[in-house]
Amino acid sequence: MLKPAVLKHRRTTLERVEKFISEIYFTDCNLRGRLFGASCPLASLSCFETSQRIPYEEAVRQEFRLVKVGDCFGSTWQTCWFKVDLSIPREWTGKEVHLLWESEGEGMIWRDGQPVQGLTREGEKTSYILTDNLKETDPHSLTLYVELACNGLFGAGKGSMIAPPDPDKKFSLQKAELVVFNRDVHELLVDFEILLDMAKLLGEENQRSFQALYTANRMVNLCDVANPSTFAAVHELACSVFGQKNGESQHVIHAMGHCHIDSAWLWPYDETIRKCARSWVTVIRLMEKNPEFTFVCSQAQQFEWVKNWYPGLYSTIQKFAKEGRFIPVGGTWVEMDGNLPSGESMVRQFLQGQRFFQQEFGKLCLEFWLPDTFGYSAQLPQVMNGCGIHRFLTQKLSWNLVNTFPHNTFVWEGIDGSQVLAHFPPADSYGLAGCVEEMLKTVKNNRDRGRVNHSAALFGFGDGGGGPTQKILDRLRRMKDTDGLPRVQMSTPDRLFTALEKEKAQLCTWVGELFLELHNGTYTTHGQIKKGNRECERLLHDVEVLSSFALAQKSSFQYPSAKLQHLWRLLLLNQFHDVLPGSCIQLVAEDAMRYYSGMNLPWPLREASRGPAPHILVVNTLPWKRTEVIPKAGPGGSKTLGANSFLNLPLQVDGSVIMKNGLVRVCLDTLGRVTSLCLMQPERESVPEGCCANQFVIFDDVPLYWDAWDVMDYHLETRKTVAHLLKPLEIIQPGGLRGSVTFSLQISEKSVLTQEVILDAACPHVRFQTQVRYACNLLWKLFPLLNTPIPVYVL
Ligand SMILES: [Zn+2]
């Protein structure tokens, strides 16, 4: 019998469907409330806490004490090992059975001595599938272990995510039980969610919006939540919409699973090792259940960590890598900073990374993968080309504060004309949830959609790990080819870039640096890390040069290849994009400094100088001629090599100083400011008239968002000159091979600056050695910026 049609009001119909799947409203009678069936408590739960990150074998030998759901554990950075004894009820035969675990902190489930799945509430992983169809012959009693790290996906910031960690934070266990999981209800919930989003987001002007809404409404009519036999027909209705295909012109989105794991940031390096294992083992579980699922993964260092600490998991990863589903990308040792490392370091990032990928996975990476780094040097295209890479992916420039970058797909040209094909995923994220909204944004936000018809969508929780979930995959599956939505296909970087390369002739070219209009404060934050990086870059370079000389002279010399590789890898690790820029917590900065100090032993020199009599060896390790004064440490204190006097420093009656060495002349006024810096032959002044260099100034430093990361342009409006002379100019070394002058300035009540200005004979440069005792205003917690602008003529 034909039922009479009824009027449908758009808003009430939308809300009716929303309430049917709501997590908050009507859960006693809606579909969401049926996601889980029967439940039963654990047979027993006990715990052992430790401040160390210890292996499984050691942990399970410890003494465990009984605990219960609702208890608190920790504090921050501790680890709680839980012994979970469970007994599945016999009457659950034929059901899908999960262990439901909701706690703060990040967990790893161990089963039969192997890591099997990560648990994190923030990453929507609170359920471990014990069986998807319980059989009578299956073991019903088993023991699992949960290794719970007392830190969240984003560390343990006190008050806000990027605040320093709260050392006293406690971590609670809210739920630990066995449940029956109704897979058919889950599938229907995803059906409804996608249809609802289509109805809402495609808009009233779009026919498909109404088709999706009316179908969802019919599904609610048909679905009897208390009678699962109605579910199949409801699902069929949804499939009738998802099965209607697009025309050929529809945009293609290359979806790839991803899990951005900062190698250290709001947590230390050691925790990252466990983050990798938790995230990647979960990816493997998803791969076993979803044959189409692909996952891209960068940073050779993280692979090496997992290889060393989780060999069983690593061999499974290698198996899926061979199938082309777990896909190493990037080609570098870590996702490094894109501006601060030297050219040599940039090359070494690729050398160490590509070598590792070649050795472990049998192939080199074809794409450079740097989605989260704060800007990209114009040198990089040349370095990439030299390392066999012609493709580049990032999304960070979407963080620009003022200007919107004009392209998503373009040719990026470096300083020497080298070119790479660059792609910025248009959803402006590397951690998508696979929602309709993100896929529509990927098309709408694509600024090159007239030129190319392909783009990337990277899905999965990230920054602190986590990765994709089953629900994300289920969402994407429904958008594979559904009329009205972009075609969302599971893909690989190679497939994406191959498709883009076909349209290369249409693309615009961007020449030079990719500058990020944010986070420029990271060029000064944690100056000790920058200094350590540069010193170790120089040291490792010099060691290689000297070792090469030694080998050339004596063929039996043992070139320290293994040791150099180890040290280079440590240095490259510290160039990670939250470590070298200084955007990490103090714990990470301490690790970084420890790695630098371990490197800072002049061991090859020491070994070379082993012998009956001490020798002095002067070697220029740079590829150009240098004339410099070299200090020599001797029993009578510091001496200089050579004896000729070239230099003298007259102190003027007004307290100023003129320094001259025949090449340059420097005039310092009574406050130590450089009023003149002149090249003598031909005479050329560098400091503009009326200006002075080496003048110290302070600025307010209150950014909009990220304190240690950002210096905003408006700080320039708060300039205050430091002009309180504490100690007047005094000549320390009056001449000969070296002349120097020192003075002190009072910056504030407790902050003092002392500087030594040094001019050497025969050297066309002046050196400034500055020591600052810098105390903040504790009352206001203000850390003003101290700066010394140097205005110069540049020809
Ligand atoms: Zn990052």
UniProtKB/TrEMBL annotation:
One of its GO terms (molecular function) is alpha-mannosidase activity. Keywords: Glycosidase, Hydrolase, Metal-binding. This is Mannosidase alpha class 2C member 1. The lineage of its organism: Eukaryota, Metazoa, Chordata, Craniata, Vertebrata. The keyword Thylakoid does not apply. InterPro entries: Ams1-like_N (IPR054723), Gal_mutarotase_sf_dom (IPR011013), Glyco_hydro/deAcase_b/a-brl (IPR011330), Glyco_hydro_38_C (IPR011682), Glyco_hydro_38_cen (IPR015341), Glyco_hydro_38_cen_sf (IPR037094), Glyco_hydro_38_N (IPR000602), Glyco_hydro_38_N_sf (IPR027291). Residues 517-596 form the Glycoside hydrolase family 38 central domain. Signal peptide: none annotated. The keyword Hydrolase applies. It comes from Podarcis muralis (Wall lizard). Belongs to the glycosyl hydrolase 38 family. GO terms for biological process: mannose metabolic process; oligosaccharide catabolic process. CDD domains: GH38N_AMII_Man2C1.
